């Protein structure tokens, strides 16, 4: 059978109860994978006779008991499948997950356990993780439909050996506001100073300078700030990549793009275009037009500072939703100094590949692939993210879904995530499935974010140009990790140095030669080989 390529969400659902070593199996089960006669081809329940399955999962809220949670209780009634969950909080996930595998005391399935590509391939080739290709072909119609619609997702989830070992998180490519969005600019400040929205990088510089120097809030104090990019420099860099001609193949392989007119990789942080981008940010930084603590501030500190409303431009989700600050609108995609005008930091919607995995201890793989496939269809997605009508959400006359007031304005003072976590598992954690705008209640689904994304869309690179993440063999992964761990640390340090002025741009050649000595040519060779293998 033709091998399909799938996303890495399948790696997390079966591992928990095996850690406890105390799950009871259904009487009369036969050899693994041979219980097909108990599986209904479609509809509910999934199995005719009830089965019990060991599952291991990561959770965010310590208070949750997954063996007594409405989501899983109701899904058990629908499917005839009972999961005996062992759960670990996300902070301890890596240690406990890896310990279970190395000890051999692992479950039938791992859910929301976020296995890396390297682990998927390693344990897959060892025979611990089941290849899912044929099961998906026969038992996962919702997932197959997604793969057929988005071939790059199929490419991305297929390992170097041609197998799929996990179901992934997918962010619906039709959900534009999750894929792209410009920074937010304060319209009233533009109006006050008689300025139009900036259309070029030079115009943005002039607008930020005016915001800082011309008292647009009218209080007679020099308390206005320019562009607040948040905690870390990447929000600035990522918005500007397309304006400087970088990453024309998207952001799935952020350090790589093609040399113009070829399919040969170059290392983005070593290019002249990246140097020009850093020189632009150095100009903004040296004139105090971006937040000066960008390399040291924490998320909480920046949120508190930006909530004061003194930034003219903010890189974040809608300030009205996040900070209760009205008056910000999406800024245009900018034309750069060479005439490039594109928004390129875009993925194909594929998140972590290892979110649902079946192990060789799984006695009912057919049933469990049907079980997880439901979460990739509309009804399963609605249940997973919205819950249950009349309990957690309601549907209005236009067919829109929204949480009840008991969730969004909880009488016990719980925030929305805390309130919904009394019924559902998704807040704050990892999950397999597909995130769709229709069933998602975050800021990105609101009108302002939709308008922002629509403003960006004409300049967003085409989906066909987005290159999936590269998948390496186990040996290649070890080599890439050994090389790139040091190079990435060096790139991050030098990027900060160039922007802050602690490193002079006259040292650029020394910077690129140092990376070559650290193994950059070998990394590019490995990446090129992985790309060519994927093309075949």
Please tag this protein with its features.
four-stranded mixed β-sheet, alpha/beta, 22 helices, 12% strand, 536 residues, globular
Walkthrough of the structure:
The strands form 5 sheets. This protein has a 4-stranded mixed β-sheet with strand order 2-1-3-11. A 4-stranded mixed β-sheet has the order 6-9-5-10. The chain has helices spanning 16-20, 70-79, 93-103, 117-125, 133-139, 141-149, 151-157, 176-179, 187-193, 201-213, 234-240, 272-286, 299-306, 319-322, 365-373, 378-386, 405-408, 416-420, 447-456, 474-500, 508-517, 520-535, and strands at 51-59, 81-89, 109-115, 169-171, 184-186, 225-228, 256-258, 265-267, 311-314, 328-330, 354-358, 393-395, 401-403, 433-435. With 536 residues, it is of the alpha/beta class. The longest helix is centred in the C-terminal third of the chain and has 27 residues, at 474-500. α6 crosses α7 (151-157). The model is unreliable at 1-31 (pLDDT under 50).
Number of distinct helices: 22
Instruction: Catalogue the unreliable spans.
Output: 1-31
**Cα-atom radius of gyration:** 25 Å
Mean pLDDT, to the nearest integer, reads: 91
Structural class: alpha/beta
- Care to count the β-strands? 14
Quick summary of this structure?
With 536 residues, this protein is α/β, with parallel strands linked by helices. It has helices at 16-20, 70-79, 93-103, 117-125, 133-139, 141-149, 151-157, 176-179, 187-193, 201-213, 234-240, 272-286, 299-306, 319-322, 365-373, 378-386, 405-408, 416-420, 447-456, 474-500, 508-517, 520-535; strands at residues 51-59, 81-89, 109-115, 169-171, 184-186, 225-228, 256-258, 265-267, 311-314, 328-330, 354-358, 393-395, 401-403, 433-435.
